[in-house]
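Page 37, continued from 36.
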């Protein structure tokens, strides 16, 4: 490469660098800021740190995590507090861009992204109802919390509950939930509703074997296998 060409390339790079820093909102910005931040148009370093991208600490200097959803950035109370009033306090680390974008040229709230639940403190991850509405179908009606028994944080459906951990639903026990669980309460069950089972017969057979605790059948019988 000739000396003249090197100088031309260097000049072009310097011009690009100058324009990128001086007129960033015209050269590299993905769009104007949202209306709430219009006063900061052109002031890229209000949020960005050179060579590091957006600095969440700059966001939280105005938007305090404990106030989000309750107060405006000026400290005024919101007429209708948002769900985020409790959600943001449970974040394990500040990563505002995981959900939000300030530029109108980008989807404002990145709905196409999958929210990373690892951003939430471990203890708060068990309180799914803080953000998610509890299903009202008969299956969920009596279940309180512990959603992770069936659902994964990375994908809500399909559910991954393994009934075999408690009792194997083999071909002889492929029955409706209500056959064993009553009043839609899946913490309770009965085995006395089928076959020759009756409380007296069960008591007699178990006492003959010297077994006095027989009220929790699945502690010993984990499937329909007679053995």
């Amino acid at each position: 490469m000739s000396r003249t060409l090197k100088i031309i390339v260097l000049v072009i790079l310097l011009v690009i660098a100058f324009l990128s820093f001086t007129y960033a909102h015209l050269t590299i910005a993905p769009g104007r800021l949202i209306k709430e931040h219009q006063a900061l148009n052109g002031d890229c370093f209000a949020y960005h740190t050179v060579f590091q991208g957006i600095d969440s600490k700059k966001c939280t200097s105005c938007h305090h995590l404990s106030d989000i959803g309750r107060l405006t950035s000026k400290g005024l109370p919101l007429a209708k507090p948002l769900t985020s009033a409790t959600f943001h306090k449970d974040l394990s680390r500040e990563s505002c861009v995981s959900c939000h974008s300030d530029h109108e040229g980008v989807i404002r709230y990145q709905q196409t992204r999958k929210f990373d639940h690892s951003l939430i403190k471990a203890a708060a991850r068990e309180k799914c109802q803080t953000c998610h509405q509890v299903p009202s179908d008969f299956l969920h009606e009596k279940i309180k919390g512990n959603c992770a028994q069936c659902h994964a944080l990375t994908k809500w459906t399909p559910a991954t509950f393994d009934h075999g951990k408690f009792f194997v639903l083999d071909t002889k026990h492929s029955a409706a939930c209500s056959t064993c669980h009553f009043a839609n309460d899946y913490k309770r069950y009965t085995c006395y509703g089928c076959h020759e089972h009756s409380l007296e017969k069960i008591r007699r057979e178990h006492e003959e074997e010297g077994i006095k605790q027989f009220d929790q059948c699945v502690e010993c019988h984990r499937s329909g296998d007679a053995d």
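Helices lie at 3-22, 24-27, 56-60, 84-87, 177-180, 199-208. Flag for discussion at group meeting. The chain has a mean pLDDT of 77.
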